[in-house]
Amino acid sequence: MKTMKSKTILALGFLLFIFILSHPSPTQAQEVEDEREFDYARGGHMGPEKWGEIKKEWSACSNGTMQISD
């Protein structure tokens, strides 16, 4: 009887663990707030050549080097 109760608790704990791991956290699911702010089409008014002008915090995109966070 005690062994069966222990196995049931263990199985429920395992299922809960799997359930928690299977749901992504909000930071994993969201890369940017709004992808309509820019696009990847070269030569467009929101393309890679203009990314540094769209937002102040994207200014590193204008200098031709990789962005490095501080």
Features:
Alpha-carbonic anhydrase domain-containing protein, 70 residues, signal, 0% strand, 3 helices, mainly alpha
Describe this entry's structure for a reader:
This is Alpha-carbonic anhydrase domain-containing protein. It comes from Lactuca virosa. Residues 1-29 form the signal peptide. Keywords: Signal. The protein is an all-alpha fold. The chain is built from 3 helices and no strands. The longest helix is centred in the N-terminal third of the chain and has 21 residues, at 2-22. It is rod-shaped and about 70 Å long. The N and C termini lie far apart (58 Å). The mean pLDDT is 79.
How do the helices and strands line up, and which of them pair or pack?
Elements: H1 2-22, H2 26-29, H3 51-54
Question: What is the number of E strands?
Answer: 0
Largest sheet features: none
Question: Whole-Å distance between the termini?
Answer: 58 Å
SSE sequence, one letter per element: HHH
SS-based class: mainly alpha
Specify the number of helices.
3
Compute the CA-based radius of gyration. 23 Å
Fraction of residues in helices? Answer: 40-55%
Low-confidence stretches: none
Average pLDDT over all residues: 79
How does the overall form come out from the CA principal axes? rod-shaped
Q: Hey, roughly how much beta strand do the residues contain?
A: under 5%
Short overview:
Residues 1-29 form the signal peptide. The protein has helices spanning 2-22, 26-29, 51-54. The chain is mostly helical.
